[in-house]
Amino acid sequence: MRSLRSKLSNIITPLLKEGLSPAKLALTITLGISIGILPIVWGTTLLCALVAFVFRLNHAAIQGANYLSYPLQIALFLPFHLLGHRLFSTQPPLSGICLQSAFADPAATAATLAGSTLNAVGAWGLIVPPSAILIYYFLFIIIRKTNASRKIPDIPDK
């Protein structure tokens, strides 16, 4: 636990000195992780860049959180698809047979994959926002404690 704290401290301290308030830094990391685990195989980098631009967040920090969450995205890819299928789908779940027939009928396979991905994103939308709120508050507390222990003055939000 102590090594995790020192690693987080080594990552967070330079960002605090760069001009991010603890609240903005916690929001940046939380959004990077939340977007990074989207069950889609494209676009999380672009979505993070767009969110960072719109909310005036640190691009490097949000992309770093996004890239660090890729193993989690891979681990949660199938569970989001299965949950999305259970909650929203009227079609059979994806299977190896469906993917093997991709070359025989590419249009039908694309439609099946698009529907399955949409269901998975719906499951992500039900689970991630409440989890992100908890992650935000957890990170905010850690960053404030790191801020206080390193004697870094708080920077007000702009």
Largest sheet: none
How many helices? The count is 7
Q: Tell me the fraction of residues in β-strands, as a range.
A: under 5%
End-to-end separation in angstroms reads: 33 Å
Low-confidence stretches: none
Category by helix and strand content: mainly alpha
* Overall geometry: elongated
Q: What is the gyration radius calculated from CA atoms?
A: 19 Å
Q: Strand-and-helix sequence, N→C?
A: HHHHHHH
Average per-residue pLDDT, rounded, comes to 83
Number of domains: 1
Count of individual beta strands: 0
**Considering DSSP H and I runs of 4 or more, what fraction of the residues is helical?**
over 70%
Task: Summarize the entry for a quick read.
With 158 residues, the chain is mostly helical.
Keywords:
158 residues; mainly alpha
Any overview of this molecule?
The chain has helices at residues 2-17, 22-36, 44-55, 59-68, 70-88, 96-100, 106-149. It is mostly helical and 158 residues long.
Question: What topology emerges from the helices and strands here?
Answer:
Elements: H1 2-17, H2 22-36, H3 44-55, H4 59-68, H5 70-88, H6 96-100, H7 106-149
Helix pairs in contact: 2-3, 2-4, 2-7, 3-4, 5-7
